Amino acid sequence: MAAPVAIHLEFGGGAELLFNGVKEHHVTLPSQSEPWDVKQLLVWIQQNLLKERPELFVQGDSVRPGILVLINDADWELMGELDYQLQDQDNVVFISTLHGG
Amino acid sequence: MCQVGEDDHELLQRAEVPGVSKKCVKCKEATAAVVIRAGDAFCRGCFKEYFIHKFRAMLGKNRVLFPGEKVLLAVSGGPSSCSMLAQVQEGLRQNAHKKLRFLPGIVFIDEGGAVGQSLEDRRRMAAELQAVFKATGFPFLVVPLEQVLDLPSSVVAAAPAPSERAAGVYKKAVGRFIQRDGGGRQAPLEREETPLADVPECRTLLLQQLVGSAKTLTAREDLLNTLRQHLLVHTARTEGYSKVMLGDSCTRLAVKLLTSISLGRGAQLAQDTGFSDSRYGDIVLVRPMRDYSAKEIAYYNRMFSVPSVFIPGLDTKTRDKSSIQRLTESFVTKLQADFPSTVSAIYRTSEKLQTACTSSSSADHGDRCLLCMCALDTAAENASAFKATLISEQLSQKKPPGAPSAAVPEPAPLEPESAAATGQCCSSGGGEDCGKAAGGGGCCSSAREPESSDLRRLLCYSCQLTIRDMSSVDRLPVYILSEAQRRLRRSQMREQIGEFLLDQGDEGDQRMT
Fold first, then answer.
1. Mutate to test the interface with A, among B324, B326, B333, B342 (most CBs of A within 10 A)
2. Contacts of residue A70 in chain B, CB cutoff 8 Å?
3. CA distance B190 to A47
4. Rg of chain B over CA atoms, in angstroms?
5. Do B295 and A99 touch (CB under 8 A)?
């Protein structure tokens, strides 16, 4: 039984437009049996935070190409991308590098 | 995919996920924080060095910026241009290694009117950016795009290029500069900064009508780009800057390259995506960020707190297929996600492009596109594909090409000058002599605003397509229409007295003026 995980989310580069313009979110992921990983976090964001146009943020299992993900200020490619397991008080940043938000 | 040959291995290599907590490949000590290109992981310190060094190397390699020169930085608020601003700031620091030596100024073009932003949003974003600009200490200007309606025709008339500078001149100039003031402090601000003045609503409406008259989003974006460039060049000219720095990143330029090909701008690729763009003659546009991918810029901005403001554009939150630009961007980004060398491959290809016609000083007014100021590429020989499209277009037109345009209501705020232009063409446009009696009848009878079909002759292929997408060309700003009229009159005059000229070409021109 994993404890609830408190995560600090940030959105930048236009991605915040999909979240009512709010750039910073402090969220607490509910506890569940397996540890939270980034793939599940994306699903959770889509269900709970994303206000409109999900196809502009997620694509299939992962984020849409062109959206960068930083975990604790490091490239998520170095952390295992979708398989990285979230720790308490982690900082996850989504930056869009696309023209259209 | 069969992997027999090793040549295509690098190009088609899928992205490999590097191991967790890898060490930096450069210093081999600190933990890596960013993955650049395919598999190179850098730590924060090495990344910062790499980033800063690339900027200096780009400017140093292309010796275009002379010391002491006034350079205008075109900042849109987006990550690339704000990063460029930060790099310039970093480079001008007193104790910087290989200090930069030019005098920067900043311009921000507020396009909120064309995009449909509310006045409060525009003011808020302009205020945020102003705070950023003030912190840099450079003189800055905030120019609303509505000012493009007031530009003089000199913007689209080709200006003479400055004398070509030989390569050796650069080194001498640097030497002289160092001797003279030895890197003294930059002169303090001579003038007050100009905050965003309130734009009268009728101007915004005119601008929206202009942009809205293009039926497709592709044409609208193209038109907006053209107008923005004209305004930038005009601002640079009036404020005394000789160079303009644009913040286009590698990713953005790769998308632009493919988009340009799709839009029919293949002939102008070298100027649209190259490092320096001298189509405007006296003002040279440079793109120092063209070596940075969007990812590198985003990481640098995040890690080293470079402020930027997100300003929504025309294609924000639109679907993938809404415009050619959007579709190409989505294509390139998706490809890049799987094959990380996509963008750099496109970039390397674009570096090899060069303009076909070298001397721009010999090209007179008639040889340049009215809108994009590049050399015309529409000499349609009989067997060319372009000629075929022209013929098929003529055959498929329902109404005869000479019919006057449908009644277009004159917009009320237009100056009386253009209303007079429809009446008599002789007195408008600075009193140009309208030609002798023999040709006088023909000239004065064409006393109407140029139509879409008239403008075609003055435009390059892709600008023709953009104009074709517009419901009426009357919405174009006065400076474009009056320059078009002037050129049409010139070419008519030339046709009429052509047989009386002794020498075709240069000598004939001198005689006419």
1. B333
2. 299, 302
3. 54
4. 25
5. no
DSSP assigned state of A86: P
H-assigned helices in B182-293: 201-212, 217-239, 250-263, 269-273
Burial of B5 (0-12, 13-18, 19+ CB in 10 A): exposed
Minimal CA–CA distance to B226: which of B508, B459, B472?
B459
Residue among A96, A101, A10 at smallest CA distance from A52? A101
**pTM for the complete prediction?**
0.79
Give the DSSP H/E element, type plus range, for residue B142: strand B140-144
pLDDT given at position B360: 45
- DSSP per residue, B376-400: P-----TTSHHHHHHHHHHHT-SS-
Smallest CA–CA distance, residue B192 to chain A, in Å, is: 31
In angstroms, the Cα distances linking B356 to A82, B60, B98, B267 are: 48, 25, 35, 8
Segments in chain B below pLDDT 50: 3, 5-15, 182-193, 358-363, 365-366, 402-447, 507-508
Dihedral sign (CA B159, B160, B161, B162): negative
Condensed to tens digits (0 to 9), the pLDDT of residues A11-53 reads 988 888 888 888 899 999 888 888 888 999 999 999 988 888 8
* CA distances (Å), origin B72, targets B232, B260, B371, B397, B435: 9, 25, 22, 46, 42
Q: What is the DSSP letter of B8?
A: G
- Closest CA relative to residue B340, chosen from B296, B288, B275: B296
Q: Do B34 and A75 touch (CB under 8 A)?
A: yes
Answer whether B367's CB lies under 8 Å from B359's CB. Answer: no
- Residues in chain A within 8 Å Cβ distance of B315: 99-100
Q: Sort out which chain A residues have CB atoms less than 8 A from B295's CB and list them.
A: 68, 97
State both tokens at B393. 């277009």
Q: Please report which residue ranges of B398-498 form alpha helices under DSSP H.
A: 416-423, 437-445, 452-456, 461-468, 478-497
Q: Max CA-CA distance within chain B?
A: 85
Q: Do B336 and A93 touch (CB under 8 A)?
A: no
Nearest chain A residue to B41, by CA: A78
Q: Identity (one letter) of the amino acid at B107?
A: V
Closest CA to B425 of B349, B486, B351: B486
In the prediction, which pLDDT does A94 show? 92
**pLDDT at position B499:** 81
Euclidean distance between CA atoms A12 and B309, whole angstroms = 9
Q: N- to C-terminal Cα distance for chain B?
A: 65
Chain A residues lying within 8 Å of B303, measured CB to CB: 73
